Amino acid sequence: MQPENPEPYSAPAQAIWPAAAIPGRPGAHLHATQADDADPSPGSDADARSTDEAKTPSGPEEISDAEPTYGSELLDELRGQIAQFVIPPSQEALDAITLWVAATHLQPAWQHAPRLAVVGPAKRCGKSRLLDVLTETVHEPMLTINTTPAAIFRSISEDNPPTLLVDEADTIFGPKVAEKNEETRGLLNAGHQRGRYVTRVVGNDHTPHRFATFAMAAIAGIGELPDTVMDRSVVIRMRRRAEGEKVKPFRSRRDIPALHDLRDRIAAWARPLLDEAANLEPDMPVEDRAADTWEPLVIVADLAGGRWPRLARLACARMVAAEVAAEEEHPSGARILADIRRVFHAQREVDSLSTEELLHHLRQDAEAPWAEWGRGGLTARELGRMLREFEIRPGNVRMADRTQRKGYMRNKFLDAWSRYCPTVHSVDPQAARPVNHPPFTE
């Protein structure tokens, strides 16, 4: 949607933006002058009422829409442009892509540079087409096709970093080539946080020189990216279009001018807000690294106002939860811990289980991968290797018949359970009943 005033937008020289949106606080994103007009005098009933509302916890769905600004119009327009060319997996993913693009125009304000991981299970899922649109809308795009890590970090300006765009990442991080590209992975990991540098010697006298690595990056590829990259990313899981889903073909000559015009208007809107963006610390619906990664997107939404503060937090909460669930399902992640916890629960929280008994129960779960793990199912050696990553090791345990066998004590799992799979999964009451299994033999 084009603004009514076609002239370039310019913010007031002393524009002051309030703190980020607070759930239950309508108008928290109002411009200072609007807030002054709308706020009641201290001590009034309305003031007390707003204070009570601020103390009431609420989820992202309950955040009231704020006063829209020119920025919210630009985000709406950008969202519509992206949706013309690709079909993201959800409305939340489309919102996240829109906010990520806008956040690239405020990179000097951020402490963390979120990656946009655009992944899909197969070809023709729209990954490269999305990168085409990003190339024409992000700040200073830098395509890294066949680009060495040295060339990349020598191209990154600390004061005005580019936006890295990596396509066909599976050719970089695939199992046959991953070892050759460890430096690229390390660069992408380091560049997620401000203040991480690469030191190299330069010149004939080999003078040590620090190169900045901080820059936002979009990375597209088939299959999963390395865990360390995914953990620093807003993850967009693309899929092939279903029958009847239509998109607009991307034609450079026709479409790039309109995208560039929109890009320039977003940059003109964002540039005067750099200091305000750097000082905002919004309430986040997630914690730890997920909060670091999503914070720039939420701040952009707070600056834009309108419906965007609500949409940003909703996308953040739902997409992070989806990735946590996916991580728990991944066998090399917390899946093994969660399944072992279910076994102990089904056995009425016994103090210990022998390795043979634990493996038997894991293989019995028809929805788990352990029966088909390797050639003959999960082995004691492989189980031990997985659990060593969580500092859990087998030992001698006493069985009900007073014999000793190699096995695992329940209390050794408690710390790992609390850290890596804190959500208690509902268990079928029938599964909690003891089951008569064939005797285990040494």
Automatic annotation (TrEMBL):
InterPro entries: DUF3631. Residues 46-55 have a biased composition (Basic and acidic residues). It comes from the Bacteria. This is DUF3631 domain-containing protein. Residues 1-67 are annotated as: Disordered. Residues 237-420 form the DUF3631 domain. Residues 11-23 have a biased composition (Low complexity). Coiled coil: none annotated.
